[in-house]
Amino acid sequence: MKSIAITLASALLFASVVTRAQQTTLPQMKVDTSNRTLSVSATETVSVEPDLAILHIGSDTAPEDAKSAYADGARASNAIVAAVKQAGIPEASIRSESQYLDRDYSTKQHKFVLHQQWTVKVAPERAAEILDIAVTAGATDSGQIDWTVKDVPALESQALDHAATRAKQNAEVLAKGMGVRLGALIYVSNQMSAPQFPRPMFGLAMKANASPAAPPLSIEPHQVSREATVYAVFAIE
Q1: SS3 220
Q2: Whole-number Cα distances in Å, 73 to 28, 62, 138
Q3: What is the pLDDT of residues 68-101, one digit of tens each?
Q4: Kind of pairing, strands 224-236 and 37-48?
């Protein structure tokens, strides 16, 4: 039998875990009596509860002259970061994402707005609390939350393991149904993907007008999922 990818041993099935989605290229198989092969594919999804929430918190100043906007932005950023730290979030979990001074084109006056964004990593159960603290301290443009896990490669490996097991089971069932014996693995490839969820960004500029006693938003985490697809070609005897 001609080898089409014989250097790919079955051990490579697990060594080929990828951390981002990639396109699976299926080989062109020659179908005739000299090439007795069986091809299967399997897709499995693994979902777990998140153990990490990444908050996106922002602050925009009111339109004013550049120097005043910068000064007001500095005061706002110091207040927001200080409040988050005081809530017990370590400095290493707070990162500046962007900050820029921009012209305000809504009026003919030469005014500027300072835009700032941070990411804050917290335990999922504290997401609503920390978001509320940041808004109370002066955040005006916040709300997006990325739910994830600390060990993403482990989750991907689990999805790939399930897909590989299902592919092998499918091959065995198919071989039995066709009245042939399953032979050695000839070729294998995989594709990894992360199901996408909507990530709305809520404008919270009016939060300052709300009652100080208002409770935090009701936020429910969604599960973190990884989907793996395994394509395999086996020899048949």
Answers
A1: coil
A2: 59, 9, 10
A3: 999 999 999 999 999 999 999 999 999 999 999 9
A4: antiparallel
